[in-house]
């Protein structure tokens, strides 16, 4: 075997073990009994110790030094392995294991604090997570920007400076659009009971409509919807609110976008570094374009309206036009995952600023709730009524996912670019969507984005698909056109 062959065989086992760790995380959020939380923390710590040892194994550096790539795919494999190795060798094994243990148990503590609306029950654990993440960031940054070091784990090449500048360009147009929409006549409100079992049946059908392969996945319930896994085992979750079926339906479509990205990657990359989505920004582009540009388009909501009439009977909506406006209702709300397209990125911008301040040490954990509530009132004009609608709503900080939030808006930006190109490529797209036919759109995304996995760098993946360098312009133009038409602006 050549050095390259030996390295890839070793890496295949590492990737398989990482998938097992991911499955433990999925189980913790869906099936695990509550009393197992502490034991699961030890299990996660143990497997992280094994993974860290493999990622820092001295043989990896030796193989990397002597491996001879034969083509662009080989070079991309080596690029990904080298990056992971360099990051892992900067982090002490004890710190990696402690982070895995603490963040595993922190998720359970967060969930209970959220359910009880007791911030004080979560703050000590959050302070411990942040201290560990700052320690990790310092090891990675080697004197550089701590937040950039954390963000690089989710979006290689992005920096807080470039993301912040993009946010500054986006905010004025978003605020202007919001003001114009909120001055217009609001759509009617949905007032009907939608049973859990019926919602879940339709959610499964929606997942299949968007191309989710249930022979390689499953749909379960979780507090915070997510997608987990890669290759041929990619699982999704949703949640049900019986007075708000769109919570379930669009959470499902969103997670299907993530899952279809992983399922659509070239099978030749299975259990290799190229066999995963290249970044969270590109990942989010898939979930957001599935959910919004496709799933909330008036063409598709017309089909969805007819489906809901068949399944739920008359639920008090006059017709498909009103239904489209209800689905796309713009209103200030507390919950990021339920936010409309106009408000969504403002939620992300707030979190971006708060977590940068936490990592810098400018904001103390004890002051986070007040800082959140003050910023939310300033940005959205609504006072937070309880912690589960405020700083306890997102699971991310309990998981230690600092630097993750900005990739949500970056994903929206990428989705805007992809949607612009998709409509140029498929000129009769609305005809297909109006029949519930997603195959042309999802097929285009699979061919131009998903199948490549980690072959290209994140921005290069979008640039190659679109034929131009991604920017926020197409997203903002899409939002202005869509909501202008829906609200008669």
Q: Could you characterize what this model shows?
A:
By secondary structure, the protein is mostly helical. It has two domains: 3-144, no CATH class; 160-487, Neurolysin, domain 3 (Orthogonal Bundle). 65% of the residues lie in helices and 3% in strands. It contains 21 helices and three strands. The protein has helices at residues 3-30, 37-55, 58-66, 72-90, 93-116, 123-141, 146-151, 160-183, 196-209, 245-264, 280-294, 298-312, 320-327, 341-360, 368-380, 396-399, 406-425, 429-434, 439-448, 458-466, 473-487; strands at 219-221, 227-230, 233-238. Strands 1-3-2 form a three-stranded mixed β-sheet. Strand 2 and strand 3 (233-238) form a beta hairpin. Helix 1 (3-30) packs across helix 3, helix 2 packs antiparallel against helix 5 and helix 9 (196-209) runs parallel beside helix 10 (245-264). The active site is at residue 255. Its EC number is 3.4.17.19. Zn(2+) binds at residues 254, 258, 284. This is Metal-dependent carboxypeptidase. Keywords: Carboxypeptidase, Hydrolase, Metal-binding, Metalloprotease, Protease, Zinc.
């Amino acid at each position: 075997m050549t050095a390259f062959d030996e390295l890839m065989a070793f890496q295949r086992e590492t990737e398989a073990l990482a998938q097992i760790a991911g499955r433990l995380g999925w189980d913790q959020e869906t099936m695990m009994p509550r009393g197992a939380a502490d034991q699961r923390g030890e299990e996660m710590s143990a497997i992280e110790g094994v993974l860290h040892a493999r990622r820092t194994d001295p043989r990896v550096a030796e193989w990397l030094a002597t491996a001879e790539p034969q083509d662009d795919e080989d070079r991309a494999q080596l690029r990904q392995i080298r990056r992971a190795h360099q990051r892992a060798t900067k982090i002490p094994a004890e710190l990696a294991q402690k982070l895995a243990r603490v963040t595993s148990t922190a998720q359970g503590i967060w969930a209970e604090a959220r359910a009880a609306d007791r911030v004080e029950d979560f703050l000590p654990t959050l302070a411990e997570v942040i201290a560990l993440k700052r320690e990790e960031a310092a090891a990675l940054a080697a004197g550089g920007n701590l937040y950039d070091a954390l963000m690089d784990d989710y979006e290689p090449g992005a920096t807080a400076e470039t993301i912040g500048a993009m946010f500054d360009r986006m905010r004025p147009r978003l605020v202007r659009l919001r003001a114009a929409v909120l001055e217009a006549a609001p759509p009617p409100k949905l007032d009907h009971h939608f049973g859990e079992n019926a919602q879940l049946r339709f959610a499964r059908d929606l997942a299949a409509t968007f191309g989710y392969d249930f022979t390689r996945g499953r749909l379960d319930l979780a507090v915070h919807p997510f997608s987990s896994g890669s290759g041929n085992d990619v699982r999704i979750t949703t949640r049900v609110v019986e007075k708000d079926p769109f919570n379930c339906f669009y959470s499902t479509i969103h997670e299907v976008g993530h899952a279809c990205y992983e399922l659509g990657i070239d099978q030749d990359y299975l259990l290799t570094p190229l066999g995963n989505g290249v970044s969270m920004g590109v990942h989010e582009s898939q979930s957001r374009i599935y959910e919004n540009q496709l799933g909330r388009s008036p063409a598709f909501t017309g089909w969805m309206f007819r489906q809901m009439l068949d399944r739920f009977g008359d639920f008090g909506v006059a017709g498909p036009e009103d239904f489209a406006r209800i689905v796309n209702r713009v209103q200030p709300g507390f919950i990021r995952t339920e936010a409309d397209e106009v408000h969504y990125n403002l939620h992300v911008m707030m979190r971006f600023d708060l977590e940068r301040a936490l990592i810098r040490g400018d904001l103390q954990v004890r002051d986070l709730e007040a800082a959140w509530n003050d910023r939310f009132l300033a940005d959205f004009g609504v006072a937070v009524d309880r912690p589960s609608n405020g700083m306890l709503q997102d699971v991310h900080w309990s998981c230690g996912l600092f630097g993750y939030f900005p990739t949500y808006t970056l994903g929206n930006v990428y989705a805007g670019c992809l949607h612009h190109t998709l409509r140029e490529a498929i000129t009769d797209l609305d005809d297909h969507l109006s029949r519930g036919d997603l195959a042309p759109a999802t097929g285009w995304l699979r061919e131009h984005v998903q199948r490549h996995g980690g072959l290209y760098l994140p921005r290069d993946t979008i640039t190659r698909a679109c034929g131009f360098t991604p920017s926020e312009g197409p997203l903002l133009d899409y939002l202005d056109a869509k909501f202008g038409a829906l609200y008669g602006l």
